[in-house]
TrEMBL record:
It is found in: Cell membrane. This is Carbohydrate ABC transporter permease. Signal peptide: none annotated. InterPro entries: MetI-like_sf. Keywords: Cell membrane, Membrane, Transmembrane, Transmembrane helix, Transport. Its main location: membrane. One of its GO terms (cellular component) is plasma membrane.
Amino acid sequence: MFGKKKLKNDFDQGSATVIKNKRTKVLVYLALTIAAILVVLPLLWLFFTSLKSRMELAKNTWGLPKVWEFSNYAIAWTGSEIPLYMLNSIRATATAIILTVILSTPVSFVISRFRFKGKKLL
């Protein structure tokens, strides 16, 4: 076909690597499952612990809450400076996003249009 550049390997197309060995595939899925569990379990524990009263937390640290106290969230929101912290996070994130867009636009233009040493490494 005319105008098509011959690719060096499958990675140039952006295709995924296919695992053909069944044992390797099982080990990869096992490792990913363990990693997912290690990420999700602390978040679940944090959520369930946030629904306990102070007394129940002292008595039953690892179990599920007997009485689910959603009022803890209202107390935390009104009794602390969480709204201020959230606003500060939003401001910092918005500033970072705006600066990233402003600075990356001319940089990407330079990378795409000009030749310089090390360009192929990018």
